[in-house]
Amino acid sequence: MQTAGKTLAMVACSLSLVSGIARGNLITNPSFETPVVTAGSFENFATGSTGITGWTVTGPTDTGVSAISTTFVQNGVTFEAEDGNQWIDLTGDGSNSTEGIEQTVTTAPGTNYVLTFYVGNTTGGGIFGTTSTDALSIDGTEVNTYENANADATGLSWEQFTYSFTATGASTTIGFANLDPASDNSNGLDMVDIEVGSSTATPEPGTEALVGGALVLLAFALRRRSRVNR
User: Fold this and answer.
1) Domains of the chain: which residue ranges?
2) Most buried pick, 32, 35, 117, 214, via CB within 10 A?
3) pLDDT for residue 23
């Protein structure tokens, strides 16, 4: 009985290791709440900056993005955040190029993840265009583009988008870049979320071996316990 108990404990330990994939949102500062921007204002971050907690600003030299307060108003448009008190404008403060942001998160190779994020668009103000379009990249490769064409003449209309991917390494870099034309001065991004997906992904060879060994131990323990109890 003591041996069987030890075996069952080993099985439990093995299975807990298998299920030890991180859960919940993997993104740091998903709704861009830090650093805190003065209410009703915005703050610019140039290419290469890591001033937005958890994120790095990307793009051509002399471009950048802006962190915007949810109470910022310009040309009759109030720029409300989708979540919290702040959001990111991928067009920056008039730089209007292919600037963007990226973040590297810890992932498990072979595991499926679901990425969700919101793109904000306004059709008001005259200088903010009529659509907002973002490019999504995974590990430096563009995988898709997303356009929000919802009309809102006095505020931001937020639309959620989803992308699923299977991690190929122990870390994955997620990037967003502005695709709006130079005449468009607003392209919102807010509430970025990456979580383990529900679809079945192919486990790593080491994981398969660990699961198989745990099941063999479990079968042995149950068989031994059955004999002892006869």
Assistant:
1) 2-199
2) 32
3) 77
Q: For residue 102, what are the β-bridge partners?
A: 56, 175
Whole-structure pTM over 0.70, yes or no? yes
Q: How many CA atoms lie within 13 A of 216 on its CB side?
A: 6
Between the alpha carbon of residue 190 and those of residues 12, 31, 69, 94, 101, the distances in Å are: 40, 5, 12, 19, 12
Query: How does residue 225 score in pLDDT terms, banded at 50, 70 and 90?
Result: low
Residues in CB range of 179: below 8 A, 6 or more apart: 98, 133, 134, 135, 145, 187
Q: What CA dihedral angle connects 150, 155, 156 and 157, to 10 degrees?
A: -40
Region 2-199: CATH code: 2.60.120.260
